[in-house]
Design a protein that fits this description.
Pathway: Glycolipid biosynthesis; glycosylphosphatidylinositol-anchor biosynthesis
Radius of gyration: 30 Å
Helix content: 10-25%
Structural class: alpha+beta
Membrane topology: Single-pass type III membrane protein
Pfam families: PIG-X
Strand content: 25-35%
Strand order of the largest sheet: 7-8-6-5-9-10-4-1-12-13-14
GO molecular function: mannosyltransferase activity
Largest sheet: 11 strands, mixed
Shape: elongated
Distance between the termini: 112 Å
GO cellular component, one term: endoplasmic reticulum membrane
Length: 521
Amino acid sequence: MRRRSTFIHKPEHAINPDDIVIVNQTLHFSGLRAAREERFTFGINDLPDQVRDLLTRSGSIRIRWTSQHRYGPVSPFLARSAAGLFVEFTPQEHRPNDEICVLLKTLFSYNLKCNGASQSFVSAESPLSSSKTVGHSQYYSLLPNLTQFVEFVGRTACDSESTACIQDIELLRYVSYIDIDYDGLSHNCLLTAFWEDNMNQALWDVTIKNEVLAKSEIGILSTAPANEPEDLQLEGFLIDLSQHDEPKPTIFFFPSRHHELSAQQSQEQAYHVSFDTPAGLHPTLRISFAGRSLLNEPAKVPSGSACTLYTYVTLPSFLFADEYAFPTLEPDNLFQEAHGIVSLKAISGEKDLELPDYAIERWGSTLLLELDSKLSSPKTSGDIKIPLHFRYMNSTIGGEEAVQVPWPVLFWACSSDESIDLRGNPFDRTHLGHDTMFGDDTIFYYLQPDTHARDQATESITIPVLDTNHVSYAIVEQATLLVVVAGFCYLAVRILLGIISECNWWKTVSSSRSSEDKKST
């Protein structure tokens, strides 16, 4: 096993190297305010038996869970994904693939709407990359917390008397995001957890011991300006507990596929998400900007780079978009002016327009939309308006169902020189959903939610459903049966009258012909 602990602090929160104590391959420091990333690399034999057995039969898996509580950007941890549980799965050949759902339910929640990869997952697409061949499928659930995961890890990784281990595991309840990657070829499992720097305004009190079979590396770093636009730069101290007895100063830089906008542009392009009211069964998802006329391309991009503004929208099964309502190949100036959307680039998942939510097995769908970043005209509000539709849901008492929808991810996708190797980032995050739709040479610049908006990265909306207080299933069934029977009887009578009328007509015609024949003879 390997452990890499990284702390990213602001320059004003720098730690005195004399306060970093290393004794007998054990590091300790306290009072540091910083963002924190913990990354563990496990061999397949390091994992609990139940998880190991499921993984070895499941192929490659990428799991991304993001908190519903928004967190600010911290370089180099700049990648964004929708709140909830997102999974990319590549099954083994000639193997059943339904055990992936058993794994997800074991780790995260037994209530997940997951019955197997073939039933619940959706096929992924890569419409904007000519070099990628996508062979994986995707799953999503708006999982609100990691309670079951924390309890499972604590139960399998810690002895009941190990207070320090249990305390470390309990920190997972407060993560901003967690990634789990299993490679079916190398059989290695990578677990990454990230905490934002103002988590409950707490200061880190850290003790890390280098184990015989677990190499530990620690970085205490801050960001610094990089010389090249595609690079990120860090400086501070690195400690390898198997080799160092004091912090080693360091400065290094690397190209990154994930970036943030400048402070000024981040403020100008901050966005807010809401649903128009009343929503009814055909809601409009509205994205508003702090300064709609200031949606300019990122100021600092590689030379010759071209940038386009996109949004990646994740829709649970109760909500869907009609793909035929969006322009795809040919531009629609009227639609673009009315909605702020240039075109639909990709749609994956459940596309049936008629099925009710309770009849759908797949988790939902995703949209990739190219947005209009030009100056807003006096005729428009300057907002992005995405037309959506609710599916019919099960009836409830009160006639309403409150649901949560994750906020879309907004970003500029910019091209870069093929000579720039974006895989050299030691803190890289991939398989986030939107990134797999673009080529490996794409750089993403993320827009940030409005800081004045509420803390949640989800939007609440109420769906009208059948009210069981006023109408029962029995009444609905009886009324439906009555209407069907009445309709059948009506049609049967009309058809019967038509047949009788047709028969009478033929009799009249036959009688007339017989009379004419007699007269002619």
